[in-house]
Design brief:
The structure is a single chain. The chain is built from 7 helices and 7 strands; from the N terminus they run H-E-E-H-E-H-E-H-E-E-H-E-H-H. The chain is of the alpha/beta class. The chain has a single domain, classed as Alpha/Beta hydrolase fold, catalytic domain (Rossmann fold, 3-Layer(aba) Sandwich).
Length: 244
């Protein structure tokens, strides 16, 4: 029996539709990637020890992250840091200071390297793990916000100067007191960025405050790090523990 001409066309169309549909259907296959690599992590760094260091008690540690102009492999760039000048001028300065040096601005601050570096410092020096404080200016302040947001359990308090943080991570600082500083005339990093981050930390239940200098631009290190109230504020705080 012959098939009518119109029916043949219908059959051909149906066959074609099924064929196209079969070709168009995506297929998924399970896959896995794994590779073992070996990495070398390193920082050159400076250490300043208080007068009471080595007398049988653990000392508080202040970590200072520098700005982009101090990158490299020349620690002389760090010796004029305002924090070190202040410590050297005050015989009773109670904090040990540790300052890592980023090899280049391109390398930025690596969380992996910072973590490994701090582990090494804590193993070599008689430092109180509940009194580790973090500060930095400009590029260093970006590092302060980032490191503290990713590792809030490592720090008792932080003080970023002229930097910017990721407010999506602000809730991580709920138990890390923050004192931020910025110059109202800063044209390199907008003061609004520091305001935004401080507000975000407070909205998430944290304790953050901001000092805005109406007469200063990006260079706020000298005024901030010569203020004894900053160091007294650091020492008011100890690292938060869940069991407390």
């Amino acid at each position: 029996m012959s098939i009518p001409h119109c029916s043949r066309w219908l059959i051909l169309l149906l066959i074609s539709a099924f064929a196209v549909d079969a070709i168009a259907q995506p297929t998924t296959r399970p896959a896995h990637f794994e590779k073992t690599i070996t990495k070398t992590l390193s920082y050159d760094y400076l250490v300043w020890q208080p007068r009471d260091y080595g007398k049988g008690k653990k000392v508080p540690l202040l970590i200072v992250l520098h700005g982009s102009g101090s990158c490299g492999h020349d620690l002389a760039k760090l010796r004029d840091t305002q924090v070190l000048k202040y410590a050297a001028a005050h015989a009773d300065f109670p904090l040990m200071i540790a300052m890592p040096q980023s090899p280049s601005e391109k390398d930025w601050w690596s969380l992996e390297t910072l973590d490994a570096w701090l582990d090494d410092v804590m193993s070599k020096y008689d430092v109180d793990p509940d009194r580790v404080y973090l500060t930095g200016i400009s590029m260093g302040a970006y590092g302060v916000w980032d490191w503290a947001c990713h590792r809030p359990d490592r720090f008792a308090a932080i003080a970023p100067l002229a930097g910017e943080g990721n407010d999506d991570l602000a809730a991580e600082l709920k138990h890390v007191p923050v004192w931020a500083f910025h110059g109202a005339r800063d044209v390199e990093v907008s003061p609004a960025e520091e305001v935004r981050m401080v507000d975000a930390v407070n909205r998430k239940g944290g304790s953050a405050k901001l000092t805005m200098y109406p007469d200063l631009g990006h260079g706020i290190g000298a005024r901030t790090y010569s203020n004894p109230e900053l160091y007294a504020w650091f020492l008011e705080h100890r690292r938060y523990h869940e069991s407390r």
